Amino acid sequence: MSDEFILETHGLTKEFAGFVAVRDVSLRVRRGSIHALIGPNGAGKTTCFNLLTKFLTPTKGQILYKGQDITALKPADIARLGLVRSFQISAVFPHLTALENVRVALQRQHGNSFDFWRSKDVLNVYNDRALALLEDVGLSEFAKTPAVEMPYGRKRALEIATTLALDPEMMLLDEPMAGMGHEDIDKIAALIKRISAKHTILMVEHNLNVVANLSDIITVLTRGHVLAEGNYADLTKDERVKEAYLGAGHG
Question: pTM, whole model, 2 decimals?
Answer without folding.
Answer: 0.88
